[in-house]
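Quick one, probably user error.
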């Protein structure tokens, strides 16, 4: 098995400081949280940013500032979100890709997302993929439902993606694919041969899904975007605390944890 790549999803678009007081929101807070997560074993930072009022934004200037802060502190792979928040326009969502980060997310289908709809019509998926090709950004394909893997295969066939593909299998979003071993096995079975995958379990499913991913040879995403608790009713102290637990579990099970440089090799990323 490859060494384990841990992604830290530090901020997200939905969680608030009222729910998780340790949520990093200001650019300096996010950069510090990234450094701590990296020290704890994360090699990818999945990045959302917030405006001065704490609202989700895809503002390029804020992304630029946060990315600069992270790069000054650690060597993590930066993966910008193009999902943003439900309801944002495609133009708004695509802004951080033009900063040429190493990676960006690409959701390959529409899905109910709690009370909202996360809309990704085919034409927009294609234009996101083309923009990523243009800026030399490797997509992480966000999969919330099985059909999204079929759309990724179609993109591959139409030359809008290049193999090997890298997926993030997100399980447990209310209204989307539920979390559990059968769902995960099914999704992994659907992936094109040679793909790599990360698993992101939502809420209390974060830890059990992470353990399954470690055993199956997948990679793991944890962080406040997906889960704010350390254990039942106990808020996590930091994103790093969640990363550290996964790193320790992996080592206990006999799977080593990848450094950012090792993660770049696994994902075929070439730095400029
Ligand atoms: N906030 C969700 C609606 C991504 O980062 O690419 C979408 C999301 C996916 O978070
Ligand atoms: Zn996200």
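Nope, works fine. Designed sequence:
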């Amino acid at each position: 098995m490859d060494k384990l790549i841990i992604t830290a999803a530090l901020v997200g678009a939905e969680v608030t400081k009222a729910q998780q007081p340790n949520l990093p929101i200001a650019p300096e807070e996010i950069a510090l949280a990234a450094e701590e997560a990296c020290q704890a074993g994360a090699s990818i930072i999945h990045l959302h940013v917030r405006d001065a009022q704490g609202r989700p934004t895809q503002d390029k200037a804020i992304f630029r500032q946060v990315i600069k802060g992270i790069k000054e502190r650690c060597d993590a792979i930066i993966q910008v979100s193009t999902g943003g928040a439900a309801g944002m326009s495609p133009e708004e969502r695509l802004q951080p890709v033009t900063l040429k980060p190493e990676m960006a997310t690409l959701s390959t289908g529409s899905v109910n997302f709690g009370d909202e709809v996360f809309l990704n019509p085919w034409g927009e998926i294609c234009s996101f993929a083309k923009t990523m090709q243009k800026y030399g950004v490797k997509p992480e394909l966000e999969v919330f439902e099985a059909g999204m893997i079929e759309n990724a295969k179609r993109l591959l066939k139409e030359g809008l993606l290049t193999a090997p593909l890298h997926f993030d299998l997100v399980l447990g979003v209310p209204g989307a694919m539920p979390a559990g071993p059968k769902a995960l096995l099914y999704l992994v079975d659907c992936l094109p041969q040679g793909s790599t995958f990360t698993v992101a379990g939502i809420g209390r499913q974060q830890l059990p899904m992470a353990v399954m991913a470690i055993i199956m040879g997948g990679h793991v995403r944890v962080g406040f975007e997906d889960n704010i608790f350390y254990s039942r009713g106990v808020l996590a102290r930091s994103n790093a605390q969640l990363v550290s637990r996964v790193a320790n579990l992996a080592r206990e099970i006999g799977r080593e944890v990848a450094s950012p440089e090792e993660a770049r090799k696994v994902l075929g990323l070439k730095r400029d």
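The pocket of zinc ion (ligand 2) is lined by residues 9, 12, 46, 48, 81, 83, 225 (CB under 6 Å).
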